[in-house]
Structures are given as C-alpha cells and as structure tokens.
Design brief:
five-stranded mixed beta sheet, about 25% strand, alpha/beta, about 35% helix, 8 helices, single chain
Amino acid sequence: MRILCLDTSTSLANIALAVDERIVAGSVFTCNRTLSARLLPEIERLLGLEGLGYGDLDLLAVAVGPGSFTGVRCGVATVQGLSLATGAPCVGFSTLATQAMNFPFSALPVCPLLDARKSEVYASLYDCSTPIPSPLINDCVIPPERMFDLIRETTDQAVIFVGEGAARYHDVIAARMGERAVFAPFPHHGGHAANGVLLALDAFRNGLAQKPSHVQPVYLRASEAEYAKMKKG
C-alpha cells in the first residue's frame, strides 16, 4: 500500500511517503506564506524520487488539527483535491496524537501542547503504551492552568510534556506540576508525518477511511474572522 501523509498544522510542514509499511521519502520545511505554493511541488518531488505519480497512491492522510487555521486548511484542501482527482480514500488524524506518538511504548502518559494564543493551549493527554495512542483527555482548547488541573484529576503519574506549547509554558508547567513534569527534549516538540502514516494505516484496516468531503478541519474554536463577525452581529 502506498500512503501519502501531510501535516501542515504547526510551524513545520511535514510530508511522508510510505510504501508497504516503509517510509521511503519525507520532507520537513517551515510553514509560511508560501506554503500553498510550495506544498504540491514538494509532494511531486517526493513521488518522483520513488518513480510514482498521484495515481499510484492508495491512501491519503492529513492532520486535521488542532493547530494553525491556515496550515490546517491548506493540508486538508490539498488532500481533498488529490482524493477527488485520484479516487484514493482519505484519513484525517489529530495533530496532538502525532506529537504524543513521539514516545511509543511510554510507561508515562504524554501531554502534547500547542500554543493557541489568547492565553490558551491546544492540549490532550494520551496513553502511549501501545503503538496507537489512546486519549485520556480528549483534544481541547483550554487555559494551561486548567489543563494541568485536569491532568492531576486524571492521573497520579508523572507526565511527559511535549510540543511548542510545552516550551512556551515551561515555567507554568514546572510550577503547577512540580516533580511530576517531564519535559521532552526540543527535537521531539514537532510532529512527524510518519506517525500519521501509522494512524492512517490503522484507520484504513478498521474500515474508517473516508470520502474527501468527510475529512474536515478540527479547529476547536472560532477563527478571528468568525469572532469579528459575531461581534459585528
């Protein structure tokens, strides 16, 4: 099976190409205003390295959020378009789940955090003791202090904190969680599209692949434009 996986939901864009449960090509680059113009050429470059075309793909996967509204929209729209053009089914997966998967078979729960601005974080808590993580606290947008309270109510174990939000709120986490806070080294703060390949393959085998119209962004809160429209209304 040939799987193309995209994650453009954070500050780094990730692309992974897998063939028969092997990652055969990948790319990581900074998301900026040129993302939409750069994404398809980079996908074509990776496919070309393996002598493949879009029509050779069997499954398309994409991070649906939470994360950057623009990045999520770009990734989802790209996969929807490729699915419509090729007929390949789609799978959407959580950005936070892929970051938790940086710690496979961990004896400790993993809390991925992304800075959501407005003094909030996108956050969750995962049991990563198996290859496919299980949510202990579902993906949410929440003030960081309240998230740490939820963690203390959910588990009495130490917790691994990972992600850009973990770096942003390092001192708050340390003050609230004390010795129970384990901070991931900085190379693990980013997500990896290869983790999304594993999630997509698991979903496909369980009959959860979708039509392109069913893969939708998960923002968890309204955009700035929506807030402005509501205020104006």
